[in-house]
Amino acid sequence: MKLHEFQAKQVLARAGVAIPEGRTATTPEEVEAAAIALGLPVVVKAQVHVGGRGKAGGVKLAKTAAEAKAHAMAILGMDIKGLTVRTIYVERAAKIAKELYLGITIDRDRRRAVVMLSTVGGMDIEEVAATQPGKIARSWPDPTLGLRAYAARALCFEAGVPEAQRDAVAGIARQLYDVFRATDAMTIEINPLFIQEDGTVVAGDAKLEVDDNAMYRQPELATYKEIAPDEEQEERAKALGFSYVQLDGTVGIIGNGAGLVMSTLDAVKNAGGSAANFLDVGGGAKESVVKAALEIVLANPRVKAIFINIFGGITRGDEVAKGILAVLRDTKPKVPLVIRLSGTEAEAGRALLEGAPLVSRTTMDEAAAEAVRLAT
Amino acid sequence: MSVLVGAHTRLLIQGLGREGAFHTARMIEYGTTVVGAAKPGKGGTVQDGLPLFNTVAQAVAATGANTSIIFVPAAGAADAILEALDAKIAVVVAITEGIAVHEMLTVTSMLERSASVLIGPNCPGLISPGTAKIGIMPAENFSKGPVGFVSRSGTLTYEIADLLTKAGLGQTTCIGIGGDPIIGLPTPDAVRYLNEDPETEVIVIVGEIGGSAEERAAEYMREFGKKPAVAFIAGRSAPAGKRMGHAGAIVSGNSGTAASKVAAFEAAGIPVATAPSEIPGLVKKALAGR
Question: Does residue B125 form part of some domain?
C-alpha cells in the first residue's frame, strides 16, 4: 500500500526528520490561502500514487499567491498516468544548495534491508544504479541491531556527504531506518534530501510503501488506503479470497495456485494468444468462490473466451464443476468456456459437466490451444 | 538417501487447528513419524492421539522431535518459527501464507546464526516419496525415483510431479521452497542439497519471475554441478510491475525477468522447458546423456 507524500512526511516528521512547512488543499482558493499562510515562494505538488509527478507537470514553483492559485487550477483534475489529482500539497520552498538521495528497501538476495545514500539526488535511483553504481553507498543492517551510528556514519563517508552535514544526514538515515521498521515498509525514500543554503537538511519529497501483509498491525496507516479506479476489480477479488490481475489480452484465465496460473498465461501465449487476466482461486476453492471468479472474468468486455485450468489437490474437481454449473444456471455466458480438470476428483468433476455448454480438454497445452482458437 | 526428510524424521506440529489437523492425519497416513504438537495452554493433554506441549522446547525434550511443521496463522507464524529455531529443531517447514516481510527479515537473521534449515514460508513443504512427507501436497502425484525436484510453486509442483510420475520418472525428494520474497531455503541452497545427494541423478528446478534466485542457482550449477539439471520458469508472459499472486513473483525494473533466468540456465548448459509438459522429455534426455 502506497502513502501520499504529505502522509509519508507526517510520519517522518513525527520520527524527528525535518520537513518544510506545508499543508494540504483541495481547491485553488485553499492553495492560495495556504501559500499566503506558509510564506512565499511555495511548491504546489499533486498528490497521486505514482512516480514522475514532476515530469508530468504535477509539481510547480510559485513566487506569488496568484501564481500558486493558477498552478492549482491546472493541477487539480489533471490526469497523471491514469490517476486524477484531487489533493494538492502546498509547501514552503526550500533554499536548495545540494540534493542527496536517501532510501531503504528490501534486498531479497541478502534477505536484509538495504540503506542507500547518494550525493546524486533528485534522480531516479534505478537510473543512477544502472549508470553510476559507484555513486550509491549501501549498508545492510542486521534487523536485530538496527542501523547503528557507526554504520550510518560510514555511509556518509562513503557517499561523500559534506562534513558540515555528516552528523545530520547520519541522524536522518537512522531515523528513516526506524520508521522503515516501525511502519513495515517495503520501500521508504527521501528523494531529494535537501541541504539548504543555511546548511540545514530537510526532506524534499517522501515515498512510503507499506507491506500489504502487515496491515493488520498498522491500523493507523490502514486508514490511508485508497483504491484507484483500475484496482477495484482486484480489490473485490481480494475480499473474496482470490488474487486477480487485469491484463490486456482476450483469453480469460481461471486457475488454482499462482505458479500454475502463471504457467497457464504462458501456455496461452505459446499457443499464439494473450491472457486477459491472472486469476488464482487459491487452495480449496469452494463452489461460491469459483462462481464469483467466473463472474469477474466475464465482466471484462475484452474477454473472448475463458480457459479454466484446475489441478486438484486441496481444490476438488467436483467443487469447481459445481461452481461452473451454478454460473451456467443463472446466466448464459456470451463467450465460450474451455476447461481442463486434473487431479483430485477430476473425473467426478468432468462427469458433472457432461452435457454443459463448454469444451473439455485433458491437457493444459490442448486446452490453451482450443481457448486461443475460440478467442480469435 | 533422501534430503532433509526421511525415516529419521520426528515431526512436531505447530498449529494443530482445522487445517493443521487435516494435513497431520494425511502425513501420518503416508508414514511420517509425528511425535506431538505444540499448543500453548494445552500442555499435558492429548488431541487426535497426539501429546500436546506448552512450548516447543518442552516438546523437544519429551519426544526428541527434530523437525517441525508450522500451520500457525500469519500474525503468529514468525514467532512460531523463532521458537522452533530457539529449540534447535533441525528442519522447520513453514506452510503459512502472508507473513509480513519485516518479520521474515528478523527470522532469516536468526536463521543465519543457527544450524537449522527453514523451508518456506508460503510453501507446500517437502516429500520423500515412499518414505515421509512434511507438507500439504497430495501424495498420489509423487513416486519414488531418481529425480530431485525444487520448486517455488505449490499447485504447479503437483502438476509437474504428476507429469514426471506418469512418465515413469520418480523422485528422491521434492522441496517446495515457497513463493514469498524472503524465504528460508532459496533455490540455490535447495539445489545444493540435491546436488550433494548421491541418490539424486537429475535435478528439476522450477522457478518463477521475481528476484534472482534462479540466476544464482544456475551460477552454482555451472561451477559445482555434479549431475544434469532441467529448468522451467513460470511467468514468461507476465508484464513488469504486476504481482502474479505470489508476493515474490513480480518483475520490477530490470530485475526478476524470465528472460534473465532462462539466459542464466542456458549459459550453465541447463535446458529450459517452455511448458511443464516438456519437462519429462528433457529429464529423460538428461538421464540418457550422462
Answer: no
Query: Residue A101 catalytic?
Result: yes
**Rounded Cα distance, A84 and A52, in Å:** 14
Q: How far is the C-alpha of A46 from the C-alpha of A42, rounded, in Å? A: 13
pLDDT in tens, A87-129: 999 999 999 999 999 999 999 999 999 999 999 876 677 788 8
Q: Do A184 and B157 touch (CB under 8 A)?
A: no
Lowest mean pLDDT among A71-80, B2-11, B83-92, B250-259: B250-259
Find residues 296-325 of chain A whose CB sits inside 8 Å of chain B.
311-315
Top pLDDT among B88 and A56 is at B88
Task: Give, rounded to a whole angstrom, the gap between the first and last alpha carbons of chain A.
Answer: 37
Q: For residue range B115-131, what is the model confidence (pLDDT) as tens digits?
A: 999 999 999 999 999 99
CB A335, CB A306: distance < 8 Å? yes
Catalytic residue among B8, B23, B102, B246: B246
- If one counts the domains in chain B, the total is 2
Residues found in chain A:
376
Q: Which of A41, A67, A93 is the last residue of a domain?
A: A93
Query: By the CB < 8 Å criterion, does B249 face chain A?
Result: yes
Q: Are residues A160 and A272 in the same domain?
A: no
- Three cell numbers written together for A30: 485553499
Residues of A in contact with B234 (CB under 8 A): 259-260, 262-263, 266
The Cα–Cα gap between A346 and B77 comes to: 33
A257 close to B (CB below 8 A) = yes
Residue owning grid cell 506452510: B95
The verdict on a CB contact (< 8 Å) between B105 and A113 is yes
Distance of alpha carbon A285 from its chain centroid, rounded? 26
**Residue ranges of A 261-290 with Cβ closer than 8 A to chain B:** 261-263, 265-270, 274-275, 278, 280, 283
Q: Do the Cβ atoms of B259 and B265 come closer than 8 Å?
A: no
Domain edge (last residue) among A93, A123, A157: A93
Q: Which residues of A touch B253 (CB under 8 A)?
A: 126
Strands (E) located in B39-157: 46-47, 50-53, 67-70, 91-94, 117-119, 125-128, 132-135, 144-151
Mean pLDDT lowest among A131-135, B152-156, B267-271: A131-135
Is the domain of B19 the same as that of B109? yes
Cell numbers placing A138: 549501501
> What are the angstrom distances between the C-alpha of A204 and each of A8, A83, A86, A188, A317?
12, 22, 21, 13, 55
Q: Evaluate the CA torsion angle B283, B205, B165, B129 in order and state its sign.
A: positive
Q: Among A50, A105, A111, A184, pick the best mutation site for testing chain B contact (most B Cβ within 10 A).
A: A111
Q: What is the pLDDT of residue A284?
A: 67
Phi-psi region of B119 (alpha: psi -120 to 50; beta: other; left: phi over 0): beta
Which CA distances in Å does B182 have to B18, B110, B222? 27, 13, 24
CB contact under 8 A, B159 and A217: no
C-alpha grid cell, residue B91: 528442519
Q: Which residues in chain B are closer than 8 Å to A363, comparing Cβ atoms?
A: 277
**Cβ-defined contact of A260 to B100 (cutoff 8 Å):** no
Give the residue numbers spanning the domain of A28.
Answer: 21-93
My answer on whether A30 and A132 are in the same domain is no
Q: What is the pTM of this model?
A: 0.94
Give how far the C-alpha of residue A215 lies from the chain's centroid of Cα atoms, to the nearest Å. Answer: 14
- Give residue B41's domain range: 11-119
Length in residues, chain B: 290
Restricting to B residues 23-52, those with a Cβ less than 8 Å away from any Cβ of A are none
Is A366 an active-site residue?
no
